[in-house]
């Protein structure tokens, strides 16, 4: 299974490198359309290679998706934490009740009774 993962990662790396080498031409990214920039009086632009724009868009989409999913699953994580706290509380209570039940008895008899 490890070799399949390495083969997949190697193939993915080769594909990304070939895409990057094939798309090295510079493109200009503008903050706003020209008409709106003239109206407001400013426009920010940057020239980047096309592969940086494409791969950056993919990375930004993944990050936004992961953050969105993390925020969406918050209620499930909170509920699981509450259940875990409740389980720990009940386990402590059961242990306390067992010690109270066997208090004053012989230890061997208490162990035998507990094993049943």
State mean pLDDT (0 to 100 scale): 89
> Unreliable runs, pLDDT <50, ≥5 residues?
none
Radius of gyration: 31 Å
Ends: how far apart?
45 Å
- Lateral strand order in the biggest sheet: 1-2
**Proportion of strand residues:** 5-15%
Oligomeric state as shown: single chain
SSE-based structural type = mainly alpha
> What is the number of domains?
1
Biggest beta-sheet profile:
2 strands, antiparallel
What is the count of DSSP helices, taking H or I runs of 4+ residues?
5
What percent of residues adopt helix (DSSP H or I)? over 70%
Number of strands: 2
Domain Lipopolysaccharide assembly protein A: 44-94
Organism: Sedimentitalea arenosa
Coiled coil: 80-107
Keywords: Cell membrane, Coiled coil, Membrane, Transmembrane, Transmembrane helix
Q: If you had to describe this structure to a student in words, what would you say it looks like?
A:
- The protein is mainly alpha-helical.
- The chain has five helices and two strands; from the N terminus they run αβαβααα.
- The protein has a two-stranded antiparallel sheet with strand order 1-2.
- The longest helix is centred in the last third of the chain and has 28 residues, at 74-101.
- The model has no long low-confidence stretch (mean pLDDT 89).
- Residues 44-94 form the Lipopolysaccharide assembly protein A domain.
Q: What is the gist of this entry?
A:
76% of the residues lie in helices and 9% in strands. It has 116 residues and is mainly alpha-helical.
